[in-house]
Amino acid sequence: MAPTDASSLKNLDTIIQSSVSLLQQLQVALAEIHRSPTAPPAPSSPSTSNSHLRSSTAIDALALAKDSASLIRAHSTKLSLLIVNEPFTPNAIITVVRDLAGGPIPGLAASLEECRADKYTAVIRRELAWRCRSVLVELTSLLQKVPQNGQALSSAGEGFGSDGKGSIALTGVLWSACDQVIELTNLGVAGFFANKVGEWRDTLKDVMEELKEWGEEEAESDDDDGEDEDEDDAVNALADELRDSHISTQDMLDDLMSHRTIPKSDPDAIRPRLETSLKRLRLVTLLYQAIIKRRIKKLPSIPPSADSSQSVAEIPQRLDEAAGVLRVLPDRFGDLACAFYELQSDEIDSLIDQCFLDAFAASELLAQAWGGGRDEFTDWAEKFQAQIKQE
Predict the structure, then answer these.
(1) In this predicted structure, what is the pLDDT of residue 6?
(2) 160 falls in which pLDDT band (50, 70, 90)?
(3) Which intervals of the chain are annotated as region Disordered (predicted)?
(4) What angle do CA 182, 184, 186 make, to 5 degrees?
């Protein structure tokens, strides 16, 4: 091998190692943001050293993240082709890696500096940190595939990789991670929140349907003692089956649950509680739908401008507070469903109250218009609150 080739390989190894080290440092910083999205950035954060990315004008954090992810996707395509094709050209690879380290990699990190919780919401900051970190993780894996022996990966069959971890496969995973960042930035704050609230609403609908189906099941016997005895027999039968076969945990739970229906005599008044809960659950799904239509889809520009009114400036905080409640409610109703399945009347009462309070709080947090004062949704929220109290 010619001396110049050896020198090129040495330079290639140096820049790969330094780039991987930078990526790993940034992964730690973004993981911390994901854990604590409202915490201020650490002074020693690697991204803070990139002062050339800053300016006196406001930076659109989501646009910066989108541009950076798009560039990483494009550069990774070049890199992937260079490491699998002959002749192997270390200098060309060095150029691509330098371009990555000098622009889109620090740009992706800088987008998280700008995406502060008080400007874009903690929810968006946390989600962006997770998706950007995924890009850095996959880019690290691709860089670590760059050969150090001066031979292209294709000659050794490592481009595709028999284990599914070849450079071609890694490039595809990296593309997907970049696309996830681009998707988030295209959605924007309003689009992302609309999607999340819609997902939580769909979960509530699933819980409601399952509870309806369970409530329609008829008990085989009205003798409580007989039911207990039958249930004990079922447990014993399942224990025997576990010893004699490989029954799954889900099969066991499904079998046990099929024996827990509301007794015909209903001594603990489970059915009236179920009817009340289903009515409230229906109202709550309507609340989610109304929030999407009347609040999320009518969000003002985010982040708020410097001259925005106090009410508008507080929108990110209001969104975070509301999202905290809206995210928990499906789990609360899921716990309530489990309490019904177990016929635990005291637990049912406690969870019904908690679900009611959470739903009431969510409607109250978003009752006022974004700019303050009343609007159509304010009137609807008051009717919702009055109705849910009656159920």
Answers:
(1) 83
(2) low
(3) 214-233
(4) 70
